[in-house]
């Protein structure tokens, strides 16, 4: 199915009035409002192709990788912190979010394209007592029970081995990935646990001190961001 440009998600940083229709994402690791279809990335953001037909050709030629895996589906959803690689053109990008909540591609080098960061959204105990970590991008990996939900893992691509862990705790560096403060980077100053069904609150200090809900907080490093942010 297709999507009308005028009603597309606000996270899509794409012109609305150039055409009536735009390709929708297919079911995958990210939901529709938090991801962009691969064809839109290639044609509208990177402009490496002019049409969806040209995008189909380079995808069928296995020239495009997402998180180190060749993708051929035009509608494949690419979400925050995913890595898009076009090795033949020496182009590597990490998907980030700006201060208006819109997804954009941040250029990175080939070395940084060999890993990504993922937040632990949940844990599952499997048969035999093995612990499965459920990550924000739909990935499930087996790991130690020492890891906690809301922690972030740095994992290798495409084999998804744990390279480092960044704990969800006071002092660590985070990026806010939702609400009116989307894209803001700062350090956790305080975590307020709410004894009810409401979301826990987190105070983040950066240029200004702000407050947001826990679900919008994504740890991206300890003293400084592990990933490249902005134009640094």
Automatic annotation (TrEMBL):
The keyword Ribosomal protein applies. Transmembrane segments: none annotated. PANTHER family: 30S/40S RIBOSOMAL PROTEIN S4, SMALL RIBOSOMAL SUBUNIT PROTEIN ES4. Residues 90-162 form the Small ribosomal subunit protein eS4 central region domain. Residues 2-33 form the Small ribosomal subunit protein eS4 N-terminal domain. This is Small ribosomal subunit protein eS4. PROSITE patterns: RIBOSOMAL_S4E, S4. One of its GO terms (cellular component) is cytosolic small ribosomal subunit. Pfam families: Ribosomal_S4e, RS4NT. GO terms for biological process: translation.
């Amino acid at each position: 199915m297709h999507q009308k440009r005028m009603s597309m998600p606000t996270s899509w940083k794409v012109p609305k009035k150039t055409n009536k229709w735009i390709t929708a994402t297919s079911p995958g690791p990210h939901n529709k409002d938090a991801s962009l279809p691969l064809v839109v990335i290639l044609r509208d953001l990177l402009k490496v192709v002019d049409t969806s037909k040209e995008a189909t050709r380079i995808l069928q030629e296995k020239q495009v990788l997402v998180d180190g895996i060749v993708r051929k589906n035009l509608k494949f959803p690419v979400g925050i912190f995913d890595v898009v690689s076009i090795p033949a053109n020496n182009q590597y990008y990490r998907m980030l979010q700006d201060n208006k909540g819109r997804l954009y591609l941040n250029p990175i080098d080939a070395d940084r394209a060999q890993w990504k960061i993922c937040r632990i959204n949940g844990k599952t105990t499997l048969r035999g007592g093995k612990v499965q970590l459920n990550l924000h991008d739909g990935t499930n990996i087996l790991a130690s029970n020492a890891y906690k939900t809301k922690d972030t893992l740095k994992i290798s691509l495409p084999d998804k081995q744990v390279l480092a862990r960044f704990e969800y705790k006071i002092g660590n560096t985070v990026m806010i990935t939702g609400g009116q403060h989307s894209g803001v980077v700062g350090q956790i100053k305080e975590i307020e646990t709410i004894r009810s069904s409401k979301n826990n609150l987190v105070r983040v200090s950066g240029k200004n001190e702000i407050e947001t809900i826990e679900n919008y907080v994504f740890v991206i490093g300890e003293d400084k961001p592990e990933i490249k942010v902005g134009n640094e």
